[in-house]
Write a structure and sequence with these properties.
Binding site for ATP (chains A, B): 87, 131, 167-170, 175, 253-254
Pfam families (chains A, B): ATP-grasp, PurK_C, RS_preATP-grasp-like
Family (chains A, B): Belongs to the PurK/PurT family.
Largest interface: A-B, 38 and 38 residues
Order of helices and strands of chain A: HEHEHHHHEHEEHEEEEEHEEHHEHEEH
CATH superfamily of the largest domain in chain A: ATP-grasp fold, B domain
Shape of chain A: globular
Structural class of chain A: alpha+beta
Organism (chains A, B): Streptomyces boetiae
Number of helices of chain A: 13
CATH class of the largest domain in chain A: Alpha Beta
Keywords (chains A, B): ATP-binding, Ligase, Nucleotide-binding, Purine biosynthesis
Oligomer: homodimer
Number of domains of chain A: 3
CATH topology of the largest domain in chain A: D-amino Acid Aminotransferase, Chain A, domain 1
Radius of gyration of chain A: 21 Å
Chain lengths: 369, 369
């Protein structure tokens, strides 16, 4: 999707890919197949690139620092990206900045989880959420522990050899996301704050703008995201995932420093997409207008389901709803895997939401009319 | 631009290109460099493609017929495409269908031009427009002859070894274009009729929808284009370029059977772009909604001008107008060459038009603020 946005900008791409089946590799004019965990592969790849950017945060932090020390331009830079790579570093830094987060602490074993829940000053209580500080995504690397007994039996998080972060389970009313884009010389734009509906720890639907969000709270979320982008010296797109609580507070859940699933709606719903603005930022070009083009835009992820071949369902959805925007990633379909998304926009939220829902369910095989 | 539209559809592309500097070759994952005038090159290229489509009409008609005879799927097919390749065939067929065209006749030399202007039944009068039936575009292969004396001195058109079509010079008030897309099983959609402003025989600006066009005339233009698409069995995008006369008539000027400059506004201005709908048609997928997304959309071509390097001007235009959509083609800049286009949209036509105009002029070096 970033390559797609780069075409009108005349940007030349080289993609470092896991393998030829990779989504980006299928559409890129120049592909290097290699392991992003290998420093020499990264070095060779970077040679001749003006700037390196990312579509995931799994490149080892030490490699990123090494590349920068050797003069490679990374955007975002290693010192910013570490906050999207390591939840421990992120929590410490945001807390230092006075940005509201769930109560949290690094814990070293089951007994320490119990202390975090029951004995610490301002103890978090049960349940407690445990997260490995690195390597988790889409609900992976996350455990919910509901009692001291359960904590005693909880060994998995401590086996990975990665520090474990304990957090209070926030009693949120919904999840929001604030997307901002910042360029190296400090220009920044903020997209409308969206509601992100999660199912089984995976983003299912994004509604732009977040329905019923009071204007002051929306502004607060945008300001918070712009401040994080500035303080952490982020370049490119930053998604700040937030919990909204019943008493009107916003707590930061996660950060992502790349085009993000909560911003996919911008492709069809904003004047400038997150992908185009990410590229503009990464290249230090002036940023584009982030405003919405329709009163409501709804994006729903398409997960792999019963159909190994999406084509017939795809055809049905196009015929049923000519205004629907379908984005397929060219991935092989596996159950539960994000293989694409659909976006609908219009003036009536219920109708727009139903159109996106219907198409995603049909493509997954949940409904067949 | 077609490749860009194909990414979300998951379409795999192979591009036959003149050379590695070609716009499409710069962004395509698979490029064959070869001569489209060579039948064996075309044969080898077609092997393994599900369907072949075109971004120009210069592939020799005989080669297209040969490929079809060998079982290659062309969309549009050779029998349709000939009407965009040969103005003589196009005029004969449209006249047979009763579709209004300028008075016209194939002429065999200067004296025959005089007869066409002065002696034929319903003589066209002076000036007369001469066009080679094949190979012309953007004002090339076109001559305006203003008198019998001038006709006697007009030898160039008759030197090319290609039949020459004489046409009356229509006293039009403006040029319009009706874009339609038709799929192999006969579904069709019509875009809003646009005004196409030509400068020196080259499309300069397109305004969507055509300002002040009476609704019945707009409908008439759309119906006419849909009828041409059906009667000629066009698949994919068809642009019908029209003359609007002071007495409210519409005469067909040219046909193009591919995504066309008069439809570039749809990328940013319509729910489904001409490129996406061309692909959907070519693949016999259900077509997308052609309706506009803003009250006014204006596209202005960027011609190569004083700046061999567009980058600094590009940066200025982005900074000045964050809502402007810039599309660069990755071509080397040569004076007068179309190197990109800019699109603006909004509620106020004068403002939208001025934004597009300003950016195109700035990129060309006509103004520098």
């Amino acid at each position: 999707m970033t390559l797609e946005a780069g075409i009108p900008l005349g940007v030349g791409f080289r993609v470092l890919s896991d393998g030829p089946g990779d989504s980006a590799a299928r559409v890129a004019p120049e592909v290097t197949v290699g392991d992003y965990r290998d420093l020499d592969t990264l070095r060779a790849f970077a040679r001749g690139c003006d700037v390196l950017t990312f579509d995931h945060e799994h490149v080892p932090a030490a490699h990123l620092r090494a590349l920068e020390a050797e003069g490679v331009t990374l955007r975002p830079g290693a010192a910013a990206l570490i906050h999207a790579q390591d939840k421990g570093v992120m929590r410490a830094r945001l807390t230092e900045l006075g940005i509201p987060c769930p109560r949290h602490r690094i814990v070293d074993g089951p007994e320490d989880v119990r202390r975090f829940a029951e004995a610490d000053e301002g103890a978090a209580g049960w349940p407690v959420v445990l997260k490995t500080v690195r390597g988790g995504y889409d609900g992976k690397g996350v455990w919910v522990v509901r009692s001291a007994e359960a904590a005693r039996a909880t060994e998995d998080p401590f086996r990975a050899g990665v520090p474990v972060l304990a957090e209070e389970l926030v009693d949120f009313t919904r999840e929001l996301a604030a997307g901002v884009v910042r360029s190296p010389h400090g220009q920044a734009v903020a997209y409308p704050v969206v509601e992100s509906v999660q199912v089984d720890g995976v983003c299912d639907t994004v509604i732009a703008p977040a329905p019923g969000l009071p204007e002051p709270l929306a502004l607060h979320a945008q300001e918070l995201a712009l401040r994080v982008a500035k303080e952490l010296d982020v370049t490119g797109h930053l998604a700040v995932e937030l919990f909204e609580t019943a008493d009107g507070r916003l707590l930061v859940n996660e950060l992502a420093m790349r085009p993000h699933n909560t911003g996919h709606w911008t492709q069809d719903g904003a004047v400038t997409s997150q992908f185009a603005n990410h590229l503009r930022a990464v290249l230090d070009l002036p940023l584009g207008d982030p405003r919405p083009r329709a009163p409501w835009t709804v994006m729903t992820n398409v997960l792999g389901g019963d159909y190994p071949d999406l084509y017939p369902a795809f055809l049905h959805c196009m015929a049923r709803d000519p205004g629907l925007k379908i984005h397929l990633y060219g991935k092989d379909v596996k159950p539960g895997r994000k293989v694409g998304h659909v976006t609908a926009f219009g003036a009536d939220l219920d109708e727009v939401r139903e159109r996106a829902r219907h198409a995603a369910d049909y493509l997954r095989g949940v409904i067949d009319e």
